Amino acid sequence: MLGAGAGFDAAISLQEGASVIDAVEVNAETIAFARELEPWTGSVLSHPSVNVHIQEARRFVASTYYKWDHIGLSLLQTNPASGRARSHVDARVLTAEALTAYLSRLTDDGLLAIIQNTPLLNERTCASLLGATGGDVSRIAAFELATDDSHPFRFLLLARNTPFSDADRARQAMLATSVQARSASLPCDPSAQRGMIKPATDDRPYLFVSAPRALAHGSVAATIALLALAFLLLRPRAGRFSGAAAGIVGGVVMAVQVLVIYRVQTAVGLPTLATSLGLASVLGGAGGGVLIVGSHPTIAGNLRNATIAALTGVLGLAVFGGPIADICAGLPLPAAASIITAFAFVVALPLGLPFLALIEQVTLIEQGTLIEQGTRIEQGTRIEQGSITRDGARIDGRAEGLVIGCDGIGGMAGAATASMLVITLGFTALGASLVLILVGLLLLQILPGNRVA
Questions:
Q1: Which of 48, 51, 63, 221 is deepest in the core (most CB within 10 A)?
Q2: Residue 297 or residue 85, greater confidence
Q3: Cα torsion 54, 55, 56, 57: sign
Q4: Is 24 in contact with 57 (CB distance < 8 Å)?
Q5: Residue 66 lies in a domain
Q6: Could you tell me if residue 17 is inside a domain?
Q7: What is the pLDDT of residue 41?
Q8: How far apart are CA 39 and CA 44, in angstroms?
């Protein structure tokens, strides 16, 4: 039982005569809660035939050599849960690659059973099953267990490694009738639709995001991008500071975090641990890079050089992140966490440099002579504090705040755009886009007024 929860499926299986059950649940608190209520639950998780494994489903299957007569997944992603930002994390257990792995761990007559509660989830899950079976509809059977829209166990999909015979389907229909259910046509049958639904994959794992929701993500991203553009166009002048460059830096760093967290999730499985390790590696790496290289004048004070350094890190993440995460997925959890976190930390080392360069940019004298309280400050001297007058315009510490503001708006646009891109094109496309965006940031430096002294 993958996603065993508090043991409901395990209890039903015991009642139906199962002799050995592996109950796999990623949330240790769920197991602890169920055991606190054992007088009410019938002590199902303490039953001698039930082996409880607190692991992520895919890592558990990959780390064992067993084969099962039945692999069950009930409501691993419910309709309300699909509205959460973690949708791509939860859906990893039902991608085409995941289902292929489950099918490979079945005995000769073994069955993979998936229960969903809405037509949309059932349809998308079926598409992933077709992706796992190579489009072989003869290996999949669909049932509607109830007609009530609010029924929590409404749809059932069965799959196995060999085709269902006519005799198999006749027996299934008889069993369905005995429990007041019915056989149903495949909701994703290519012959019954004008267009085949794309199966969710590890690269594009948003299994349950419908077209309207993807459009909504795109609309949000476009709206934030327009707001950012308006802010940049209407911003007060602050020397020769490039608000567009600050926005791009913020957008790239936020999008990188999306990519890093998913790669770590692939490697370690546990969602909470993956988020913690991913964020820590990006923030720690970016800060560490600034401390290590930030004092170097050709990097700290030059946006072009800082961006080239950051581009190297993003390129490494885009090219090597996927293969390293896949390798780590087959290693013990401590080793996987150590390797993928170290890799993310290293590629994130130069990510803070463009932001540092932007801060430096607004506090450097580009040309001419500046006068502050009667003291002459020569070209190339850094302004540490106070108000500076240049060509009749006042420049003060508020410029740094403007950098941070533009960076934050760019970060929101980057996060929204990254989500939209992953939904439609996948994580590989996200990595390629990050490289292109940073190249665009480099090109900004050829525009008048964007050069740094």
A1: 221
A2: 297
A3: negative
A4: yes
A5: yes
A6: no
A7: 78
A8: 10
